[in-house]
């Protein structure tokens, strides 16, 4: 397995409460890995630990390692801005920049990288195409991104994340606020994008995990209970707690 990012005995606490209790998990490159489990089990906390998002929370404390590109991202000499560029994030609720047009939303990152005006235009078009939203937006790029439907806004947010050419894309419940048609478009998109980008998706929807991921990790009460190929985990789980959750007897 070609591992792209790996947590090693990762512990996260907020104040005196430890939320993750030593998670060790290796994520293979160019695949979709789903993280499932009941509410409050540590799924989103784990995801945010993979790109230094907890740095923004004063009470957060991290122990253990997250190894990416052969280096611990929590080492003191690591540039957090570079990490967040290479490990992008898409949130539960579509969050386009409200005062910016569709074009400006996607151009934001490439401009920060110092790309020329023509390169920015090219990157915006490429990213909107990769997020399968170009045909719906190409004639309205100057319109506010907030004028779009929720599903369209989420695909613009994915395009915005793709525009800085990340190696890994973290998606935290990216379809929970969307209707079934928009959800299906995002799931189809994941399958297409994994040729170039490794994705880790937190989802409360087990059917989505079964449909859209190659690997699944089941979290419970801050522990990693089971992790493996999605089909194997769903059809023949090793741990009775996993079986209880996926069959609906628990959670």
Counting DSSP E segments of at least 2 residues, the number of strands comes to: 10
Number of structurally distinct domains = 1
Topology order in helix (H) and strand (E) letters:
EEEHEEHEHHHHEHEHEEHH
CATH architecture: 3-Layer(aba) Sandwich
Estimate percent helicity: 25-40%
Using only C-alpha atoms, the radius of gyration works out to 18 Å
Please list the strands of the largest sheet in the order they lie side by side.
6-7-8-3-9-10
Large-scale geometry:
globular
Number of helices: 10
Class by SSE composition:
alpha/beta
Indicate the mean pLDDT: 94
CATH superfamily: P-loop containing nucleotide triphosphate hydrolases
Uncertain runs are none
Major sheet, described briefly?
6 strands, mixed
How is the CATH topology named?
Rossmann fold
- Termini gap: 31 Å
CATH secondary-structure class? Alpha Beta
* Percentage of β-strand residues: 25-35%
Model description:
- This protein is an alpha/beta fold.
- The protein has a single domain, classed as 3-Layer(aba) Sandwich (Rossmann fold), CATH 3.40.50.
- The chain contains 10 helices and 10 strands.
- The protein has helices spanning 43-49, 80-86, 102-112, 117-130, 134-137, 150-162, 180-193, 206-212, 230-235, 240-246; strands at residues 3-14, 17-28, 32-36, 60-68, 71-72, 87-90, 168-172, 198-202, 215-220, 223-229.
- The chain is globular, with a radius of gyration of 18 Å.
- The mean pLDDT is 94.
